[in-house]
Automatic annotation (TrEMBL):
Keywords: Isomerase. Signal peptide: none annotated. The keyword RNA-binding does not apply. The lineage of its organism: Bacteria, Pseudomonadati, Pseudomonadota, Alphaproteobacteria, Rhodobacterales. InterPro entries: Cupin_2, RmlC-like_jellyroll, RmlC_Cupin_sf. Residues 68-132 form the Cupin type-2 domain. Gene3D superfamilies: Jelly Rolls. This is Mannose-6-phosphate isomerase, cupin superfamily. SUPFAM superfamilies: RmlC-like cupins (SSF51182). One of its GO terms (molecular function) is isomerase activity.
Length: 322
């Protein structure tokens, strides 16, 4: 593959195109300053304004959320996996019907395999603009987002209506539901009973991995972060490895499915037969299936990178009721 062909599979941090109207809470005070990014795959945006950088199916989606301090993402649920790692800043994740069942604070490099089937939200509690990178299970990301009832009600009060088909209409732009199309119904009390309310003690040990713990695990070989035999044991349709300057890999890496490389710290040189590229934190690179490649730090100093590879497993539920 030529450098030009591979360059089309690299999304640079500085080239990311945000969408500020991606979801139903885009006008809700406290959530109206967030920016959503769809990097690989169609994502779960409810807005036609969302730009997709790489549309090639990978078996999973890659996205990101950027938020200023004190900005939050409203309570929602997914039918497939949702994994976040912190690229920049300090973030509080919370979950439950009203967001008070449990919470955890993540620092840069920490990763959270959020269980499916529970309402979750997150907010930037740092002092500067923060960014979290996301991995969503499945090519269609599970068919969209399930919102807590109060989120839909709050959005309606601020001019946004979500249709039953999952499309967003903004009355501030003169839009309204088309004739014959119904608004997204609120979940009933009976339906809400199907959403678990796990505690912090149940979730954090089984679904959160800390950056410095992974650095220690990756002393000689990549640390297995998410997978059937990994630190966070799960089969969400993809596997995640953590690689550091101690575990640089030669040019014999090869996978049956595309691999996505996302640096957390340091600069990384990726080589393949026909070219090379250097990645920085915030960049995302998709290596085609059956392509031999190598990765190594491009300079001295601390370096860490997350690698995601699809497995072909169904991107199903991850909450096991630990």
């Amino acid at each position: 593959m030529t450098p030009q062909e591979m360059d089309s599979r690299i999304v640079r941090y500085g080239e990311l195109q945000p969408c500020k109207t991606a979801f139903i809470d885009a006008h809700t005070p406290g959530s109206n300053q967030k920016e959503n990014f769809t990097i690989i795959g169609g994502g779960v945006s409810e807005s036609p304004d969302q730009h997709v950088h790489i549309s090639i199916p990978h078996g999973f989606n890659i996205g990101a959320a950027g938020q200023p301090p004190n900005c939050r993402n409203s309570l929602h649920s997914h039918r497939t996996a949702e994994v976040f790692f912190v690229l920049k800043g300090r973030w509080r994740f919370f979950w439950g019907r009203h967001g008070d069942a449990g919470e955890v604070v993540l620092e840069e490099g920490d990763i959270f395999n959020i269980p499916t089937g529970i309402f979750r939200g997150f907010e930037n509690i740092g002092t500067d603009y923060g960014m979290i990178m996301a991995i969503l299970g499945g090519d269609d990301a599970g068919g969209g987002v399930i919102w807590a009832p109060q989120v839909i009600e709050d959005a309606r009060d601020h001019g946004l209506i979500l249709s039953q088909k999952g499309k967003l209409y903004d009355s501030k732009k003169g839009q309204s539901l088309p004739d014959g199309e119904q608004p997204m119904p609120l979940l009933s009390d009976e339906e809400l009973k199907a959403f678990p309310e796990p505690t912090t003690a149940e979730v954090v040990p089984n679904y959160v991995a800390r950056y410095w713990d992974l650095v220690a695990l990756a002393d000689r070989q990549p640390a297995r972060v998410i997978g059937a035999d990994a630190k966070l044991r799960d089969k969400p349709g993809f596997e995640v490895d953590f690689i550091t300057q101690s575990t640089k890999l030669d040019g014999r890496q090869r996978h049956d499915n595309p691999a996505v490389l996302m640096p957390v710290r340091g600069h990384w040189k990726v080589t393949w037969d026909g070219g090379a590229a250097t990645l920085a934190p915030g960049d995302t690179m998709s290596v085609p299936e059956n392509t031999a490649y190598g990765i190594a730090p491009a300079m001295t100093g601390e370096a860490a990178l997350y690698r995601t590879v699809g497995t072909g497993d169904p991107a199903g539920a991850t909450w096991k009721g630990h």
